[in-house]
Specification:
The complex is a heterodimer of chains A (598) and B (81). Chain A has 598 residues and is mostly helical. Chain A has a domain at 262-492. Helices cover 73% and strands 3% of the residues of chain A. Chain A is built from 21 helices and three strands. Chain A has helices at residues 2-7, 13-20, 29-49, 72-92, 98-116, 120-139, 144-175, 193-208, 217-221, 227-249, 254-272, 276-297, 300-331, 347-360, 367-381, 385-411, 425-443, 446-451, 463-482, 498-569, 576-596; strands at residues 53-60, 63-70, 493-494. Chain A has a two-stranded antiparallel ribbon with strand order 1-2. In chain A, strand 1 and strand 2 form a beta hairpin. The mean pLDDT of chain A is 88. By secondary structure, chain B is mostly helical. Chain B has one domain (2-80). Chain B contains three helices and one strand; from the N terminus they run αααβ. Chain B has helices spanning 2-9, 12-30, 48-72; one strand spanning 73-74. Chain B starts with a helix and ends in a 7-residue tail after the last strand. The model of chain B has no long low-confidence stretch (mean pLDDT 82). The chains are: A mainly alpha (598), B mainly alpha (81). Chains A and B meet through helix 11, helix 15, helix 16, helix 19 and strand 3 of A and helix 2, helix 3 and strand 1 of B. Strand 3 (493-494) of chain A pairs antiparallel with strand 1 of chain B.
Amino acid sequence: MMSEIFNIQFLHPSVFYILGGLLIPFLKGRVKQGYMLFVSLLAFFAVVNLPYGTFGAYEFLSWKLTFLEVDKLSKVFAYIFTIMGVIGVIYSIHVKNDGEHFSAFYYVGGSLGVIFAGDFLTLFLFWEMMAFSSVFLIWFRKSKSSLDSGFRYLLWHVAGGLILLAGIMLQYSVSGDLSVQYLPFHGWWPTDFQSLASFLIIIGFIVNAAVPPFGAWLPDAYPAATVTGAVFMSAFTTKTAVYALIRVCAGSEMLIVLGVIMAIYGVVYAVLENDARRLLAYHIISQVGYMVAGVGLGTPMAINGVVAHAFCHILYKSLLFMGTGSVLYVTGTAKLTELGGLYKTMPRTMIYTVIGGLSISAFPLFSGFVSKSMTVTAFGEAHLTWAFIALMLASAGTFLHTGLKVPYFIWFGKDQGLKAKEPPWNMELAMGIGALFCVGLGIFYKPLYALLPHAVHFEPYTAYHTWETLQLLLFTQLGFFLLLKKLWCEDTISLDTDWFLRKGAKAFMWITKPLAKIEYKFIGEIYEFIIQKPIMGTAKVFKIIDTVVVDGAVNGLGKLTLAWSRKIQNAQSGQIQHYAMYMVAGFIALIVVIMVLP
Amino acid sequence: MKLLDLIQVLSTKTIKKIAYSVLVLLIAVDFIIPRHEIHFFGDKIPGFWSLFGFIACVLIIIVSKWIGHMGLMKDENYYDE
């Protein structure tokens, strides 16, 4: 496959991250930094070079796997993913831990693999690679709470992945077709096997899109990740899921309702939140809500809006995570109750973060304005007034928190006298690039519109629309300052839907303890009497045959197995991180083999 | 830092005056702004989105805090106990 691709003068963009990542541990210092930047830039130019069409088809058993299917939709996502790859690499280039770079590379490579996958098995393979590589971005924070959050993150994604796999298998058995195709789901419950397949696939996708009640992993995991890891995570998992939803489930009405609930839900939790990065995580849920709702509406304008919004969202949300991450990096905390008065020591970080805040709030001249308004207008034009109003309400909430609450309590508010300075140059450079994109896209939006999957008939800067937005946002600001006392942060966490799982798991353990005793004492004895003894009797007879006939042949093999298992035994550490690492290594080996095979 | 110095020099009163005049101006201009895209009745009322923005903000803060204090907000060590 590799040679075939070389012949036609282009490469699958994820090859750069997946094969390129392998070299990271062998390089040092400036060479390593330059190398990582170079690889991420190469991946971007590989996307620029990519022609439309289907390539990299590969027969595996009886299935046809397609690794590279390029159309307008996958290409625009590839553009933003590789741009984000470059920004993320710059932001994290000072990090000494090679493991972190390695996980980030495979995470980005996995997301590129998903969006170019032409069949569901390939999609699933990369889907899982994303989960298993990104969990290390949480674990490398190396605290007890990050370890726990990472486990929960992995459990959510393994569960979601299995549901997706069940849907894929069912789809295959119903239609015999594994290609990634349009399988919308209508109504709320499946009625036949075909709709059950769509239903399971959609559930698998919305777990990764963090749609409630399956979204609790996101605000749990992202604030627990490393400073630089959270920047990567904010960009890829949910947006890859949005891509998959557009590709497979556009027009599934259920998504409109779920998306609107998400948009508001994220805002409500953001009011209660004290950790700045968790507040931003809740706003990812809110913003992805606009996208999920837009996918549910499914009109060309809505889909254009969703794609444009995902594009802008990755840039401004990563910028916000970079800004608050810098504060965490310098001061050691991201809690709003412990921060305040940093405008004197970190003014440039403040400006970048405020630009991110104005962009997410869809302020005119910032990137969110040209993308969010397209989605919301699509709802207005479809005369879904309830959704239109609810999304406008969530817009006010977005500005209230990300545009006002976060900057106010970090940079103004009560001066805590924290010792702080601007972050290292590379972090600032990454924020500068992100901020430039946010302002640039807000003013020169035509190139972005040209990349969208459908022809665009939308002009964001009409007099009324600009004025409507300004009124909404500036009167939100009035409300913020009048109610500032009520909004003062409290040092708490908020219960989310994962309460049922986290408390449920404890209850389960509590119940199983006495059950285990019963099993051991009572059931064990019955088992011995009814099953074990007769079997042992029969076995004795077989043993005689066995020792005489079979043993000779098997003994040699047995010794070999024993020797092997002694070796493997050393790898069995009993720690799930290690098992996860082996699984990732397995994925990598598999993908490398497939890529390099002729 | 010059911008920040300027903000510090300006008294809170002056900033408030400027801010309130901007808000009044926003509503005033809304009476004469041309309306092409009317999605529902609110788009026909001058100043509708000003009122909407303000009420939305107040509602979001009060309702969320109320829900939070109903039992959603817990001490940080809640899950460790």
